[in-house]
UniProtKB/TrEMBL annotation:
NAD(+) binds at A4, L5, H6, F7, G8, A9, G10, N11, I12, G13, R14, G15. Residues 202-345 form the Mannitol dehydrogenase C-terminal domain. This is Mannitol-1-phosphate 5-dehydrogenase. It catalyses: D-mannitol 1-phosphate + NAD(+) = beta-D-fructose 6-phosphate + NADH + H(+). Belongs to the mannitol dehydrogenase family. One of its GO terms (molecular function) is mannitol-1-phosphate 5-dehydrogenase activity.
Amino acid sequence: MKRALHFGAGNIGRGFIGWLLKQAGFEVTFADVVPDLVSEIAEKRSYRVIELGEHKRVVPVDGVDACLLGTERCVELAASSDWITTAVGVRHLGGVAEVLAEGFRRRMQARLDGDVIVIACENAVRATSELRRQVYARADESLAAFLNERVRFLDAAVDRIAPHREGHAEEVLDCVVESYYEWVVEGSPVPGAPDGITWVADLGPYLERKLYLVNGAHAAAAYLAHLRGIATIGEALADPFIRAHVERFQCEAAGGLAHRHAGFALADLAAYAEKVRVRFANPYVIDHVARVGRDPLRKLAPGERLVGPLMAAAAAGLDTSAIQEAVASALLYSDASDAAAVELQRRLKAEGVEQVVREVCGLEGQLFEGVIDAYRALKNRLRESI
Ligand SMILES: NC(=O)C1=CN([C@@H]2O[C@H](COP(=O)(O)OP(=O)(O)OC[C@H]3O[C@@H](n4cnc5c(N)ncnc54)[C@H](O)[C@@H]3O)[C@@H](O)[C@H]2O)C=CC1
Ligand SMILES: O=P(O)(O)OC[C@H]1O[C@](O)(CO)[C@@H](O)[C@@H]1O
């Protein structure tokens, strides 16, 4: 039986990637850094995926196992697995790379047969390439030669909303997900891969479509909702002002995408965007603004879900006012329990908005001016309560 090691036994790990790998007949082990989570999975050996759509579906996932990151067992599994996947959050890929470098060294020394597939399933642009870079940085010449020959690092885009568990989860390991999912991987199809994967020659357009029209629009909804004192995405989409803002954001972003990628027709992107809004408004899903808005410093970075579409729409010569407002509202996001949001507000206070927009978002010129104006206007409206 083919073996898969998945790093990150969280919502996406259990509720999406681990589940699909299991369905494809893999022997699946999760590696995680939380001892209680690892013990729970190792003891129960199974969990349930609760899919929320028009018809709620409860899918049991049986016969899984778990280990702690960095343990001997984890390294051995890294050496012997056919597929290695991650959903840990992009900033945690270093810890994964450490284990993979050691695991692949052992695989090389043991002369094990077969190629290895590595896919980082993170919300980031080409996260597998980043993981690859970090593994190679730990490899000597002979290991690098082995990696070149035997390990395929494949970039991917993953899309499945895994919201808050409240109201649906009954057991500790239950994971709650929307019924929709999309897993797009760059490369030629790998025999024995999960059925749910879409293989593409160039991931770039798909990655941007998802990052801009799903994650960007989601972030735009969350940040404006936060300013209006709204706690969930469902409530945000029910607010006509926020819904219109999200639609404008998607419209500008779609224009940028269509201009950049000849394969995308504007009408198709509009249909995709509308489907995304329906997913956001799924009445069975309770998704908190704090989850969607988490880590605003990462989300404000160049190429990310806000500044990425801003640049694309601007390059197409389009109106970018909704995206500028979304960037401005992200700058105003505060949450005492979110370290990145606290750091963002600290920097705004200490350095001023101009420096933050220059350094965090990498903006200059007209777009820089536009975001600063939008930020000041939003702040004034906040004083009058928007
Ligand atoms: N929740 C969602 O709707 C979606 C999330 N994503 C992406 O998937 C990734 C994971 O997100 P979630 O599953 O929502 O987060 P989560 O917080 O539920 O799960 C992440 C898991 O990774 C573990 N972890 C952290 N560092 C680790 C390491 N070095 N090695 C092994 N495990 C480690 C954590 O303990 C946690 O169990 C993120 O990059 C996110 O952007 C992508 C698509 C959908
Ligand atoms: O997981 P991140 O990068 O913090 O961003 C949250 C986004 O990711 C998702 O959870 C999945 O794409 C969306 O629901 C949301 O827009």
